[in-house]
């Protein structure tokens, strides 16, 4: 498992967090229990199985629901 911190554009409202969380949790290979979107810092944190999904796939899912990814860090 890898851990990712994804810096997002500024989030305007709590429903933005829910949209992003829902999109990421729906992805195969993401540990759904670890997904957290932090409103004040506009970050998403999660663990994922790099054998099943890539950070690019996760970023694309966030972009598809209408939010810009600024950068990602994977450990």
TrEMBL record:
Q: Which domain of life is it from?
A: Bacteria
Task: Point out the coiled-coil segments of this chain.
Answer: none
- Give a Pfam family name: HMA
- Keywords assigned by UniProt? Metal-binding
GO terms for molecular function, please? Answer: metal ion binding
What are the residue boundaries of the HMA domain, all occurrences included? Answer: 2-70
Q: Which CDD domains match?
A: HMA
Protein's name according to its UniProt entry: Cation transporter
Originating organism: Irregularibacter muris
């Amino acid at each position: 498992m890898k851990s990712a911190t994804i810096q997002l554009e500024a989030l305007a409202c709590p429903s933005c967090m829910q949209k992003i969380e829902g999109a990421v949790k729906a992805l195969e290979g993401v540990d759904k229990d670890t997904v957290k979107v932090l409103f004040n810092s506009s970050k998403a944190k999660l663990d994922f199985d790099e054998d099943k999904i890539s950070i690019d796939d996760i970023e694309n899912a966030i972009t598809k629901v209408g939010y810009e990814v600024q950068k990602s860090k994977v450990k």
